[in-house]
Amino acid sequence: MKTRSMYKAERMSLDTLPEPVLETILCCLPTEDAARTSILSREWRYKWTTIPNLRFTLRNRTLEPTSDIASAKKYMNIYDVYRVLLLRQGPIHEFTLVMDDYWQRYNYFEFYQIILHLSRKHIVKKLTLDGHDDSEFIWYKLPESVFTLHHLTDLCLSTFEIDHPSIFKGFSSLQRLDLSYVKISTKTLLHLLSNCPSLKNLSLDIWEPGDKCTINELLKCLPVIEDLTMSGDVSEWLVVDSVPQELPTSLIHLKYLCLNQMCLVGRHGSAFLLCLIKCSPNLEHAHLEMEWGLDFSAVKDEYSDVWLEHLNELDVCFGSNELQTEFVKFILARSPKLKTVSILTVVDRKQDSKMLKTLLRAPRVSPGVNIYTWK
């Protein structure tokens, strides 16, 4: 059993740590846990109030019934978050708030006040807001004060309805934007993206936008994009317009492309996919999970000049071994630095073995490529 002197010695060893080390330790903790370090000693009482990164997860206690009073009190509520902000003695550079089935209608005002406080008092650079709520299955409107955080470099929003104010002047420093399961019109989305001139990383998963835009219109808003992910319901609002041999904007900076569960059909869809790849000459990693219906044989001759000098990793799942074989053969012949091809298979082992044999015999310009299948 530890004696009082042993505990005192441990506290003294903590107190002698350099300030940057202490800050790093506290930043790695959820903010409610960082606040609990105030009981360690008098020297630690206010250390947590100066850390620049705050992370909160609010949970609905009524969904987790317990007779343990300590357990019932372990989660912070939205009023606690606001009180923490008022106690702050230093800048806030990163702020994360996850509403894990926590929403109640009367909480929205406090949530609005929290974001308004951040916009007026702090230079926030990274903001993550997750309004996930399975219990009511509704989207709360994102506070307009988010769009006054002009110093943002990273913005991640999940399960909100988004409409920026008419006076929105853009995010000139924003480099990463993650919109997951949000409601936003394509008009608002295009206006938002066109006012983020430094955007390098974009992830889109939009729910029922109500209107449509073309892929060409979207790509025109992404002149310096390096990492592009489009998932799920994107295919319901993002339409393939007429496909030229070249897209209006060459994606010369694009290094990672993820098309997840997109629906590109027939000759038109195949032409767009190959055109997108052709206009991404510096692509390094492609993850392509597509619906049935592509037809590469009808268009591959038109894109015989495709050359992927930097591609080293390819993941594909097209729902058909014939489509996957045709596409991978096309890429193998045009990617001199390709190292790994990973194929998600959907049929039996015999068909998988046949596909692998075909691909291993296919012409390639990268002799060291490894081809894998998985289910």
TrEMBL record:
Q: SUPFAM superfamilies in the record, alphabetically? A: F-box domain (SSF81383), RNI-like (SSF52047)
- Which regions form coiled coils? none
Q: Where is the F-box domain?
A: 11-61
Which Pfam families does the protein's record reference? F-box, LRR_At5g56370
PROSITE patterns to which the protein is assigned, alphabetical: FBOX
Report the superkingdom from the record: Eukaryota
* InterPro entries xrefs: F-box-like_dom_sf, F-box_dom, LRR_dom_sf, LRR_FXL15/At3g58940/PEG3-like
Under the heading Gene3D superfamilies, the entry gives: Ribonuclease Inhibitor
What is the name of the protein in this document? F-box domain, leucine-rich repeat domain superfamily, F-box-like domain superfamily
- Give the organism the record lists: Helianthus annuus
